[in-house]
Amino acid sequence: MHWTARLAAYLAAHLPAAEAVEVANPRAMPAGASNETVAFDLRVRADGLTWTLPLVLRPQREDGILAPYDVGRQFRVLRALGATAVPVPAAAWFEPTGEVLGTPFYVMARVRGETLPLFWYGRSPRLAAAAEALAGIHAVDWQAAGLAFLAEGSADDPLEAELGPWRMRAERLRIGRAPLLIALGEWLRANQPADARTALLHGDPNPGNYLFEGDRVVAVVDWELAGLGDPRSDLGFYAALQTVFGGMGGPRGETLLSEAYAGVTGRQLTALEYYEALGLYRMAVVMAGWAGRFGALSTGHTLEVIARRLAVLLGPRWGA
Fold first, then answer.
1. Which of 98, 199, 201, 292 has the largest CB neighbor count within 10 A?
2. Which DSSP string corresponds to 203-222?
3. What is the Cβ-side half-sphere exposure of residue 22, based on CA atoms within 13 angstroms?
4. What tens digit of pLDDT does each residue of 51-96 get?
């Protein structure tokens, strides 16, 4: 039986009032290097009428850049955020056993919107809208929303809440003992800003993870890196992403996104160099996964790029 027929049978079992259910027009959607996303139309007939629902299938990958994957975790994040002001696609069904498609998956609504390239290259109303959406994510009462399960480390320690899972990924990729990462991890623990606080993080707030209708954000997508940590960490990861893929940012970790974020929140942002350094730790792990999967860039080369950037942010000893 074709996978679309198996999926249709599964969905029909969850739509007992339907007379017929069909999965039509499946096609791969553009997504990041780590994601697998399939769009399809669900045709449901009941009481002599037919409705077509635009949906998205997110199956769990067994390996990849950010393995191990957990689509159940992503589904729980989306369901929790559906009750908040954060614009996210509605999460509809989660199948955890792998018995239907051979791997766990979830199904969510397909939101119509325009995506953007990886980086912001100038100020614009869309940049301000994305910054406002990011600030809204950080403002979520994550405990009241039922997102305490994201505290894989200690929620009382913003750095440990975020860094713990990344250390485990580094060990899995066999770069956890890289001297630069050991030294950077120790420095991060010793220098966490006194005003650090724990908030909900998107994890990867690059422009491609927002869907726009005109200048309005209609959905924030790709929540696989959602976690807890200081809000500035999202800004720091974007800065680190820019460092590795797009060249150096500002000398103290500032970017167009952090500038827009400060503008929409009215907050002065401090210690951005610290949070870019934290983002660079994460980027070292991401790129180790990338090199292992695609052979595109060596881990050694990435660590050299990161060391040079750390020398700009934190002092010349890091460039040695």
1. 201
2. S---GGGEEEETTEEEEE--
3. 9
4. 999 999 999 988 766 767 899 999 999 999 999 999 999 999 999 9
Tokens of 17: 């009032």
Half-sphere exposure of 33 (CA within 13 A, CB side): 13
State how far the alpha carbon of 62 is from the alpha carbons of 56, 102, 172, in Å: 19, 11, 14
The answer to whether residue 117 sits within a structural domain is no
Phi, psi values for residue 89, rounded to 5°: -65, 140
In 3D, which of 225, 242, 244 has the Cα closest to residue 297?
244
- At 185-203, the pLDDT tens digits run 999 999 999 999 999 999 9
Q: How far is CA 128 from CA 141, 210, 213, 216, 259, in A?
A: 22, 12, 14, 10, 9
118 lies in some domain: no
Task: Clarify whether residues 102 and 140 are in a common domain.
Answer: no
Whether residue 245 is contained in a domain is answered as yes
pTM value surpassing 0.90: yes
- Retrieve residue 12's tokens: 């029909």
Residue 192 structural domain: 125-319
Domain harbouring 102, CATH code? 3.30.200.20
